[in-house]
Amino acid sequence: MLLVALVGTGVRLLPWVLDPTIPWATLLPFAKSLLAVATEAAIVTGWPVGWALVAQGLVERGEALVLATLGERPERTMARLMPQAALFILLLAMTSFALGRDARAPGRVVDALVKDGRAACEAIHDGTTTTRAVPLVSATWLCGTGPARLVGRAPMGGAVFTAANLHVNDDLRRIDLDDAYLLLAPSEGAGAAATALRVRVHVSGSLSLVGMAPWARASSVPPAVRALVVATSGVSAACAVFFALLKLRRKWIGSIAAVGFGAVGPLTALFILRALELRMPEAPGLWLVVLALVPIAAVASVVASFAAVDLLHGPRAGRKA
Asked: What is the pTM of this model?
């Protein structure tokens, strides 16, 4: 699962890796964020899938029936996996906490991309003129023509700017430009008189653009709460699918179906969590709602998937009989 997630991360980064104007070192902050997303998705999905495959293997080999005959309930069999569950919770919580910090403050990643681009530009000492593009930001560093300058288009009225540096706050609603020059031009389609009107502004100190709509939405769930929600949802889904497979003991459920049963709970939890953390207002009382709703949804999706498959397979089994 991790390998598949890393391949997806590589595909996402590939266009920027092949761009000669973007040094690889500049991509490091964004690559770290993508790696955290890939690792979280792999752990929270891969572990329940592994438990599902183990449980279905016990059923297919008849070991689950033997254990039930000897009086061992599925809960007892599942209890043997608790040391693994502890490791599962630890790894998943650490990964989700790291991801939650970036999701809580996406501006930090953008700010790091700008700083790394400037550092790469200032590392050029042979006098050559080149550019260093900044991913996620419509701006490019101009290198080799004296002090590094950032050129781009401001997220307001299409104004073109050049500045000595750029800073972004955590929620992406404020941009600070140092020693900025702005060219404010009318939009296309304006009349001839308006087209002739161009305003040039120079701010020698710091120019702040505030109150803007962010181009990436910050999470409203604190990192610690998010880590607890993801870890609880993953373990709940893993236990639910393991218990259901041992309890039902359906030998016609193959490995592919077991993989589907194992993945449906974690994927449902990640989808609901992502939707809630982007749309829910920042209210401490609502964190408890998220904490309870997401694990319940993960378990409910597992139960619903088993019920749906049993419902579809039941008539077929009757006709074969």
From this structure: 0.68
